[in-house]
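Hi, here's the filled form for the chain we discussed.

Project: internal
Contact: R.S.
Residues: 487
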Amino acid sequence: MKDVIQGLEPQRLWEHFYEIAQIPRCSKHEEKIRDYVISVAKRNGADYKVDSVGNIVIRKPATPGKENKPIVVLQSHLDMVCEKNKDVAHDFSKDPIQLKREGDWMMARGTTLGADNGIGAAAALAVLESPDISHGPLELLFTVDEETGLTGATGLGSDMLEGRILLNLDSEEDGAIYIGCAGGRDTEFFLKLQTEAVPTGYAAVMVVLGGLQGGHSGLNIHEGRGNAIKLLARFLWKVAPELGFRLAAIEGGNKHNAIPREADAIGYLPSDKVEQLVSLANTYQDIFRNEYQLIDKDVRVTIRTEGFQAPEQVFSEDFQFRLLNMLYAMPHGVISMSLAVPGLVETSTNLAVIKTEADRVRILTSQRSSVESRLDEICEMVSAVGKLVQAEIRHGDGYPAWQPNPDSHTLKLAKQVYRELYGKEPEVKAVHAGLETGIIGDKFPGMDMISFGPTILGAHSPDERVQISTVKKFWDFMVALLEKLAA
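And the returned structure, exactly as it came back:
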């Protein structure tokens, strides 16, 4: 299996990435990967510290003669989004990620790869073990639970860092240096379930909406990818009154920061209307494939009549009416573009998860904006939809935006290094996603920060892959920047 990384450079980075891929590390379950990081620190004789939420800082002394140079923080996160295709047998609590290599790409077999942010963590560990890099004092910060709310960064101990230059290794685009990010907040809805007996003469069916790419709800939101919950709701909103369809359960999505790839609903309808439902499913599949032919051409709407367990009750007519109207009306996607940074999404919202629970239906949405007042506005907008159907509404604490600083000294040095290495200017960008830099900068005033990384596509989905050639470029740039900062 280790042959998959044979011959790849830099060797130390790829060896650490391989070892990281063997370790279960879903968000909030980073115990084993934390043990691995600590074991690397110990075998290199490095001092380390763990705070109350599980973040780790390893300190590497400066190269002799560079002791008085500014302390530089290399920051990455230990957790990964754990997503898999439904037909893949994989237990994220114990099974290693199955790596596979196709040309210039490293990916996984039917699951997320964990290059987000395993590559960053592997790079930091490789720096720790590299004797031939010239650098000042280093603090290697590994945070936990980035993917489910940035709670590791939020709980980061105030005594963990001394450095005031931070290189975040969690970006996903070769040739780009990021200097800002959006703030975000979750809005969750709860509808108290109302049910009644299944009408006589009704047959159970399952409606499955699948075949979508999904993706990151910040980085991919502007691409117009299909949202499985929205498309399923659109279909049900149309066919329910026409065929007498009675909803009994609905599920879709898994993560607040992932665009839902799959959703399904179990319901009942008159036995003689099943063929008509199948016909309408085919019609809407054609409609969706036409609408999404350039981005999600494999979208599927399928009807199953067996192989599932149907609930013994259906939603009341009033509850179904309120739920489907809420889902259809709920905004999703880009709300506004930035006037300050051309091409940057300013504000967006993601209809992320719906679950039918024992006595309620739970709906999770996620809002982002680089402007605090617009973040408030979009949270209020989705809340207004919830209020129309008498939903209980809860808002998460959220996280702050990282305000861009184009006059950053670290950015100036990074641009100089990039020109020296590659003979051209890097792209300087802000990202419509939550980075831990916003929180860390808020906790440690005066922190001068940039973010960069190799090209990673399909993050947060089983299509995740990292471009091997850009990993070498990422490493070379990071090493040269560390040397420049210590010059």
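Let me know if anything looks off before we file it.
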